Amino acid sequence: MQVEVWSDVVCPWCYIGKRKLETALSRFPHADQVEVVWRSFQLDPSVPEGHTEPTLPALAAKYGRSVEEMAGQMRRVEEVAAAEGLDYDLVQGVSGNTLLAHQLLHLAAERGLGGAMKERLLHAHFTERRSVFDVDALVPLAVEVGLDETEVRAALADHRYLPAVQQDIETARALGATGVPFFVVDRAYGASGAQPAETLLQLLERAWADTHPLTTVPAAEGCADGSCAV
């Protein structure tokens, strides 16, 4: 069974959603037969590559709210994250274009390190307050999870994975994604947002039941309704 997750590495709800999916999988008896595939999605592709800015004032301006009001909303998200064991400091966060990070994730996936790379980028951005927006910031993180520095630099320089990133984004739109995280199981069931672990578990169970229907053998001797009444 395949679970595809569209998300961005600077999306606070996406990291929360990742933890909720992990909780759901820990309760799913067939988790060893589930492949999780991380798909690319950019929250704000309009940000120029190489440009970074403080997240708080940028979001306040984008949504037409005061900095104080937006800070309050961020703190509420931090509380939700803390309940999942995540240490956020969104008010002091920095935003930028994540196109290079997504290209790196595709390289990592080809090397069997997609999940590790995804976790490393999210942790670097939200917990360590590190940049994930340029080659020099991404390379050390990639090397940490086991990728080759020379290969990483070459791949990010020639943008060989850019078409794959763009294809992910187009597929998300075709599937009707309106926000991230966006979970799709076997291209049959979808759920948008950082759903509760219980909801994601139900999604997994339903998809599994569809592809693994219960098969019964011919009946043997036993008790039918009322036949064993004393």
Q: Overview of this structure, please?
A:
The chain has 230 residues and is an alpha+beta fold. Helices cover 50% and strands 11% of the residues. Strand 5 and strand 6 form a beta hairpin. It is globular, with a radius of gyration of 21 Å. The termini are far apart.
Compile the SSE list and pairings.
Layout: E1 2-7, H1 12-26, E2 35-40, E3 52-54, H2 55-63, H3 67-83, E4 94-96, H4 99-110, H5 114-126, H6 135-145, H7 149-158, H8 162-174, E5 182-185, E6 189-192, H9 197-211
Parallel strand pairs: 1-2
Antiparallel strand pairs: 1-5, 3-4, 5-6
Helix pairs in contact: 1-9, 2-3, 4-5, 5-6, 6-7
Mean pLDDT: 93
Order of helices and strands: EHEEHHEHHHHHEEH
Specify the overall morphology: globular
How far apart, in Å, are the first and last alpha carbons? 46 Å
Largest sheet: 4 strands, mixed
Helix content: 40-55%
- Count of DSSP H/I helices: 9
Give the radius of gyration.
Answer: 21 Å
Number of strands: 6
What strand order characterises the main sheet?
Answer: 2-1-5-6
Poorly predicted parts: none
